[in-house]
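Module 6 notes. Inverse folding takes a fixed backbone as the condition and produces residue identities as the prediction. Think of it as a translation problem where the source language is geometry and the target language is the twenty amino acids. Below is one complete input and output pair. Work through it position by position during the lab.
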C-alpha cells in the first residue's frame, strides 16, 4: 500500500479524506449511534514517527452534533463519540471500494493469480498474500 500511495498521492490522499469523513458523517447520522450532523477538521500526515511514508489522517470532532432537523444539540456519550469497531468496518469498506475504483484488475497468464495494478504506477503491483 505505501508504494501505491507514494506514486498516486492526489488520488489516494483524496480517497483517504473522503473515506474517513464519509465514515464519521454516516455513523454519526445514524440514530443508533448519535443521530446528528457533526463537524470535522481533518489533517493529513504523510510521515510516521519513524520518518517512513505512512499516510494517515487526524481528526478533531466536537463531542456531539446538530440534530438532523436542526432543532438542538445532541451530546455524545461521556466515554466516546462513536463506536470504534463500527467506524473501522465502514472505513475499510469505503476505502477498499474507492481503491478498486482507481485500479485495473490484471491476470498473470503464467500463474492465473489476480493482482491489482495502480493506474499511475504500473510497476507497483499488489499481490494477495
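Target side of the pair, the amino acids:
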Amino acid at each position: 500500500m505505501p508504494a501505491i500511495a507514494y506514486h498516486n498521492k492526489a488520488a489516494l490522499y483524496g480517497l483517504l479524506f473522503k473515506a474517513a469523513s464519509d465514515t464519521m458523517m454516516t455513523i454519526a447520522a445514524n440514530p443508533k449511534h448519535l443521530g446528528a450532523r457533526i463537524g470535522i477538521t481533518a489533517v493529513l500526515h504523510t510521515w510516521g514517527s519513524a520518518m517512513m511514508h505512512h499516510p494517515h489522517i487526524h481528526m478533531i470532532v466536537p463531542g456531539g452534533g446538530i440534530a438532523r432537523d436542526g432543532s438542538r444539540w445532541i451530546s455524545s456519550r461521556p466515554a466516546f463519540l462513536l463506536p470504534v469497531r463500527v467506524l473501522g468496518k465502514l472505513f475499510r469498506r469505503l476505502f477498499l471500494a474507492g481503491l478498486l475504483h482507481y485500479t485495473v484488475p490484471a491476470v498473470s497468464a503464467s500463474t492465473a493469480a489476480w493482482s491489482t495494478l495502480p493506474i499511475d504506477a504500473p510497476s507497483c503491483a499488489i499481490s494477495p498474500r
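Reference fact for the lab report: The two ends are 13 Å apart (CA to CA).
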